[in-house]
Amino acid sequence: MKCSVLHCENYFRKNNISFFKFPLDKKLRKKWLQFCGKWQSEYNCTNGKICEEHFESECLIGKIQCGLGLSRKVLLKPGAVPTIKSTHVHEQVRHRTQRSELRIRRQLVSEMLQNKENISELAQNNIAEGNTMIVEEEMELDINNNNDSNLINLKAQIKVLESQVRDLQCENLKLQTALRDKGYAYDKELRKKEFDFSELQKKFEKLELESKNIESCLKVFFTEGQLIKLKNKDRRQNWNVDDIARSITFYSASPKGYRLLRRNKFPFPAIRTLQHWAQRIDICPGILAPVIKILSATTHLSQTQKLCVLSFDEMKIRSTYTYDKPSDSTLPAVNYVQVAMLRGLVADWKQPIFYDYDCPMTKTKIQEILKSTQNMGYTIVAMVCDLGGTNRSLLSSLEVTYRQPWFLFEGRKVYVFADVPHLIKLIRNHFIDSGFVINDKFVNAAIIAELLNITAGDLSITHKISHKNLTVSRAERQKVKMATKLFSNTVAAAIQRAASLGYLNGHNWSECYELFKTTNDWFDVLNVRVPRADSRCRMHAYGLAFETQNNILDKMSSLILNMRVGRNTTLLPFQKGILQTNNALRMLFHDIKGNVAFLLTYRLNQDVLENFFGLIRARGGMHDHPDRQEFKYRLRSYLLGRNVGVLSNGANVAADDTPDLESANPSMTGLILSHFRCATQPMATDDEENLPELEYDALENLAGYVCHRLKMSGHNDENNIDSTFTWVDQVSEGGLCKPTQEIMNSFKSLEIIFRNLNGDSLLITENYLKKHIEEASSVNINMKAKQLFFRSRMYFTIRKLNRLSLRYTSKFSNNNYNKTVN
């Protein structure tokens, strides 16, 4: 069998040449056929073979070994393609041409011989008959001569034609070669285009998949309309209700953020479009119809989750005449707005339900709200309010007392609670203004003032409070934190500790301690936010530590019943409110304990309304005192938004009471201290090794904090248990770390170093901590403990100096004011 490559004359039986069959792979077979100059549809590849001369040596296996006689057969590597053209093409063409010339010559000779045989037969016939004539012989001779001349001419013509044929064959061969080369080039270009097309198709599929993934991710943040707007930025978009609802929600949460995103080409509707849609929602005074629709459409809540608490309170607004453009009406000035809000008792949800201007809450309005809520499938089981004059009148009309803290509505009880944060503020106000008579003994703020004077150093066991907690006035009295810091477990323990050391002789410290301790525990029971905050039972949700919590309620009720304010001989409203709240909590839990396992008692106060008022004020930025129309528009924005925001300064939330030290002037610090020199124990010096008892207690507390932060050995170390009863033992409820005596000696040395460097003021220098640590290089304690101790002591000193600066500034302002008035 001959090699399938065009013009290759190698045969299958030729020695020392291997032949290879066409591959089964279609793409590879196509390349072989293109090299052979054949088409797949016209050529049978089953029996075709290509010799080894058309393959590179790298494509052959065993070529060298075969030449050396080490291998019997040459093998072809998988995927090999023939690339070598035959080097004997022109020689083969020349041999073929010679053979064709020989063939043509043989044909001519055979024709001439045939003609001669015919002539000889005629001559023999004429001689045999005897009629041959000389003339005929001459004619025959002429004919022969003519034939010879014709033969010569024919030979010349044959040579010319043969030359032309050779030229044409060479030209044809050149054309075939050029055509084959162009075919190879076109095939190569086609394969390249096919490869480029496949690569582009893969990239397109990859980009299409990425586009779908990006679009699916964007659907979490954007609506379908917003995605269309992203794809077609220059096209006008017709926003649907879903687009407008989401955009209004975002705009209500942060108008500035909305404008910023629109300027950065985010796909949001124009603000005027949102305003046009928002104008369709009418927020009229009274029960809010949009809220009714929202609550009616809520179907995912169970009946237990629909148990709710109604709270209402008043908010002061700017008393001005206003104009309502949609109704084209002028409106009179009002002083306050009454707002009622629903809050889930079990589930975490809230919603304003009612508002009106200069409208005290009445029995009729309460019943209307209860009825509307009940028609929506929600059940109001409790009501919360403060103890203002109008609210006390309301409770009287509902026949609610502290012995009967409920009223009936359509055959079921609705329990009434007094707002606990308001109650603890009232306890604080009466304590510092009038004092209390407990067990025929009088206690007031003087004992706390004395305690603050005793512990006035940098290291203080009463570091949470200051004289500011006893002199609150105006807006400061509205801050709950100022009251809770005063009536805290730390202050109660400090009273007991100072008294045990003989510092509070002459004061009824025992009754004062009982008042502070009981009030702190009672407030903890009624302000629980999580089911289990820590190991303290009073911090658990009501119902999880039933016996302990009820004992605290009983103790508080007994204290309030036997306590009188100043010279009053009867219970004041805030005392009745405390008793009413204690009784209502027990009765409410008894009624619903079949549906719930515990109660988060912070949901039974008015914090939700206070936060709402703070949000309404904050929506105006610096303009936090809205009029009636502005309140209406802000309420609408609140309902449309996500109800998130930052409390304004008008909210009753205490700010950080440790401001930054704005001035580092030592002379200013000395001036402050010269005006406010507190009567306290002298500071320790180089010659003094022992700290005053109360300052040592504070140092022990700080050392325990450092040990806890750095996980140093403390009271859990069995080999270093200190049996001495100290301040940490007294104030701890199981979570404080008590340092060992060895660690306390090290911290005592650090305290002496700190006092020597800072004195009564604060050392003003660079590398503050570095200098202190260098001075304490001989103290046997690790570096992190030194850094944390000196940093904490520095902040304690800064806080003390800032407080003195504030008091000095206030006194200086008052003196200037008095001089101006006089």
Automatic annotation (TrEMBL):
Keyword Ribosomal protein: no
InterPro entries found in the cross-reference section: THAP1/10, THAP_Znf, TNP-like_GBD, TNP-like_RNaseH_C, TNP-like_RNaseH_N
Keywords noted in UniProt: Coiled coil, DNA-binding, Metal-binding, Zinc, Zinc-finger
Coiled coil residues, start to end: 144-210
Domain of life: Eukaryota
GO terms of molecular function: sequence-specific DNA binding; zinc ion binding
Alphabetized PROSITE patterns for the sequence: ZF_THAP
Record keyword DNA-binding present: yes
Residue stretches making up the THAP-type domain: 1-85
Protein name per UniProt: Transposase
Organism: Drosophila buzzatii (Fruit fly)
